[in-house]
Write a structure and sequence with these properties.
The complex is a heterodimer of chains A (308) and B (223).
Chain A (H helix, E strand, L loop, with lengths): L2 H12 L5 H13 L1 H16 L10 H17 L13 H8 L3 H25 L14 E10 L6 E8 L11 H13 L3 H11 L6 H13 L3 H11 L7 H13 L3 H11 L6 H13 L3 H12 L6
Antiparallel strand pairs in A: 1-2
Helix pairs in contact in A: 1-2, 1-3, 2-3, 7-8, 7-9, 8-10, 9-10, 9-11, 10-12, 11-12, 12-14, 13-14
Chain B lengths: L20 H11 L4 H9 L3 H23 L2 H18 L9 H23 L5 E3 L5 E3 H4 L9 H19 L3 H12 L4 H7 L4 H22 L1
Antiparallel strand pairs in B: 1-2
Helix pairs in contact in B: 2-3, 3-4, 3-5, 4-5, 7-10, 8-10, 9-10
The chains are: A mainly alpha (308), B mainly alpha (223).
Chain lengths: 308, 223
């Protein structure tokens, strides 16, 4: 063992990545060699110094927002089926093309040419006065994107986004109605509308998607009224569906609203023999801030047979 | 779906007070009934709830890694989103050749590397982060250091050092930065880092060595 090897291994040593025998050898060498001993001290000082850069922890808000955003995207995401791997994928092919600059440049130029010709074709066919089929008054203007005046003329081009209000009606078991209710339950910023949609959806909790929406509302909705409605809709499934039971357990332990936690205790009473429920109740019985919840948890626990 | 699979409730209350350690262990074991491979198989059959259960086991660690590498909440959220969507779309291709942990980290690591490469081109300032509202703020000003406490002078020195370290990290290549971050701040083993970067443990070790040499050199220059 020489000093060069020791110096090259000090990083491994401070990061605890050395094999036991090599570590032993290194420690023996450092005891004898003052130069390597100083180098080890310097490496250790540097290692400690690096802790001065603060590590960032995700805030609960960021985590919750990320989870919600992901959940919304998963609604529309589809898995790649096994057979699709063998099918020609233009996207993947194009990604590979980027490593071939000449071909990529040729495709880019061809795309430009096609784009210019298509745009020319469209603009030359367009009648001079009417550029839009729907007048802005028929819809609400969501925002103006660009305003461009043609040089030397009084013509102005305005590009805008619009939203159009539509309505639909049907029975509660109509798939279209259910789709809209599910959308409203998850995405609406108006808590009153979420409450209404959850209230209607809980009449059909046997549908798997509805049950998912109710569990989602129970876990993530900001409004305790919506969470209570969702809880009520899930009541009948707490015994048979373990996912429902887990969602109610989460509410029991984590929900900030005492009313929701109380309701969760009531619902979980019928599955109180489950070990998870027992542990959650034990925790609430000792540490919940609400006196009522502590006593209710103790009452349910006392009604259980002793477990060895 | 078998009922016992989707019982992914990692009870916050598994550490019940007043019970012995052994009992606590037994109960927590009974609570963490989630079996990754069973969940993966369910997710591969298209069960979204099973996939969401998997996500919940890894999402915090993934977000933390992305946040520390990008130093931007918005970018971290984008990487988080993209990583799990990619995982969901491709979970059917998961062949159990490595752990799901390594697999999901590999996806995140690749996305972060892409991000770092783009950032390198833009030459952004690492100490300036952008929050969800687009407002810029200095991250180093935001992190309170409990050790500095009532000593503002010491606090200031630590902040200065923190800023120097952030600057030195910016000068690493994306791959060196990644290996260093995973080793120093996330405490992963070099073998695991090698698997995540689809390389050998020795290569990861060499990259770490280069990164530490550069960091020491840069910090010495900055003094």
């Amino acid at each position: 063992m020489n000093c060069e090897w020791v110096k090259a291994s000090l990083i491994e040593y401070v990061y605890d990545e050395m094999a036991d025998d090599a570590r032993h050898e290194l420690e023996r060498h450092v005891e004898r060699c003052s130069e390597c001993g100083e180098e080890l001290q310097a490496t250790r000082r540097w290692h400690q110094q690096m802790a001065a850069r603060p590590s960032m922890e995700p805030t609960p808000n960021l985590l919750a927002a990320s989870r919600m955003r992901l959940q919304e995207s998963l609604e529309h995401a589809e898995q790649v089926a096994g057979w699709q791997r063998w099918v020609f994928d233009p996207g993947a092919w194009l990604r590979q093309v980027r490593y071939s600059p000449a071909l990529a440049a040729a495709i880019l130029m061809a795309g430009f040419a096609a784009g210019i010709m298509t745009t020319y074709g469209i603009t030359s066919r367009r009648s001079p006065g009417l550029n839009s089929a729907v007048s802005p008054s028929e819809a609400t203007i969501a925002g103006i994107r660009t305003i461009t005046q043609e040089p030397g003329s009084e013509r102005v081009e305005i590009r805008y986004d619009r939203t159009l209000t539509e309505s639909t009606e049907g029975r509660l078991d109509d798939p279209r109605i259910q789709e809209l209710l599910l959308y409203a339950a998850r995405n609406n910023s108006n808590s009153g509308l979420r409450l209404d949609s959850i209230d209607l959806l809980r009449q059909k909790p046997e549908d798997d998607r509805v049950r998912e929406a109710l569990m989602y509302a129970l876990r993530y909705d900001q409004n305790p009224g919506v969470r209570l409605k969702a809880l009520d809709g899930l009541r009948a499934y707490v015994r048979g569906d373990i996912r429902v039971r887990d969602a109610v357990l989460e509410a029991l332990v984590n929900d900030p609203n005492a009313g929701v936690r109380t309701e969760a205790i009531r619902i979980l009473q019928e599955v109180r023999a489950d070990a998870s429920v027992r542990v959650a109740l034990e925790q609430l019985a000792t540490s919940d801030q609400s006196h009522y919840i502590r006593s209710e948890s103790r009452r349910v626990l006392n009604s259980l047979p002793e477990i060895d | 779906m078998p009922a016992e699979i989707l019982t992914g409730w990692h009870a916050a209350g598994s550490s019940s007070s007043g019970t012995g350690l052994a009992q606590e262990h037994m109960v927590s074991h009974s609570l963490s009934r989630v079996d990754d491979s069973a969940l993966i198989r369910e997710a591969q059959r298209g069960n979204r709830a099973a996939f969401e259960e998997l996500v919940r086991q890894y999402d915090q660690a993934v977000l933390r890694l992305a946040l520390n590498l990008t130093r931007s909440e918005q970018d971290a959220q984008d990487i988080f989103q993209e990583a799990f969507l990619k995982a969901y779309r491709n979970v059917g291709n998961f062949r159990f050749e490595c752990s799901f942990y390594t697999w999901i980290y590999r996806i995140v690591v690749n996305l972060c590397l892409d991000h770092l490469r783009k950032k390198k081109v833009r030459k952004e300032n690492s100490a300036v982060a952008v929050d969800e509202n687009g407002a810029e703020h200095n991250l180093l000003d935001q992190v309170a250091d409990p050790r500095a406490g009532a000593n503002p002078e010491r606090d200031l020195l630590r902040r200065e050092l923190g800023a120097r370290i952030a600057g030195a990290l910016e000068r690493l290549t994306p791959r060196e930065r990644m290996v260093f971050e995973l080793k120093h701040y996330h405490g992963l083993k070099l073998r695991t880092i090698g698997e995540m970067l689809e390389t050998t443990e020795d290569t990861a070790k060499n990259t770490l060595f280069r990164a530490t040499q550069k960091l020491r050199g840069t910090l010495a220059e900055m003094r």
